[in-house]
């Protein structure tokens, strides 16, 4: 027998394998699942950023609600319980929260005194101007020839709009502002101080607000057009049916049946903030933190910021251009407060590498 002639390898045989014979293939995993571990390690190391804005009249519990959501009141020095002045001067406060090794850089922008004046014409201009200023800062950083490895993200990812518990319907001021605001940022409306309404009044008020939103084509978050699959559609449909959430904020603990609970103490009992039978604060918390935080950031980057970016770059054809880059002048105050047409651009590019 010729020593050079060998029997063909089973892997190279041209004979078709029988159904009972497994195909010849490399055994063992490649290790692709380790990518998840790499992403988790990097995320734990770098942390996350989340920027939230609260809008509403004075006395609706905006600061208290933020404290209840993120439990940041313990980090505030004593003696700062003075209520903010009733003016329309926006101010931002940044907290770094760490929980089980996960760091969150939280920036809260408050709008004290919004809608409190006798003449509220164009009272939304400072708020819209601030939101667009953050888009402009991010855009100017992106246009630099030598960019930072990580561009600081100060863009507002979510705006919680506090509706006064009137029990009737949205005011003309609310409708006008929400129409402009929803074109610029993710808006989550809530019924503030819901404990001042009975359960029946609260449900009737919610239905009237939902009707107002549909009548005036106000698309609050989560927008139906961004449901990516059937699971998203089912989850978001349940949330949309409960929006605006009827919430109560509290930053004090009370002893109820041997356990400490966050709540408001009244003459007839304690309103437990985290009890769904008392208010819908758990739904708001789950939406903002536990289930939709990353989605809020993605829509901000891929839709709202992208719309702003496209409009600003389209304006650049009137400006002298440098070789290889866009010479874009800073936006004027009028450009920052002018409403923009809402255009779906989600998926243009993904910015999932968040760090600070």
Question: What does it look like?
Answer:
It holds the Pfam family Septin. One of its GO terms (molecular function) is GTP binding. Residues 6-18 have a biased composition (Low complexity). Residues 46-315 form the Septin-type G domain. The chain is of the alpha/beta class and 356 residues long. Helices cover 33% and strands 16% of the residues. The chain is built from nine helices and nine strands. It has helices at 34-46, 62-70, 125-142, 172-181, 199-215, 230-242, 281-291, 293-314, 333-337; strands spanning 48-55, 91-99, 102-111, 158-163, 187-191, 245-246, 253-256, 259-266, 269-272. The strands form two sheets. The protein has a six-stranded mixed sheet with strand order 2-3-1-4-5-6, sandwiched between helices. Strands 7-8-9 form a three-stranded antiparallel sheet, with no helix packed on it. α7 (281-291) packs across α8 (293-314).
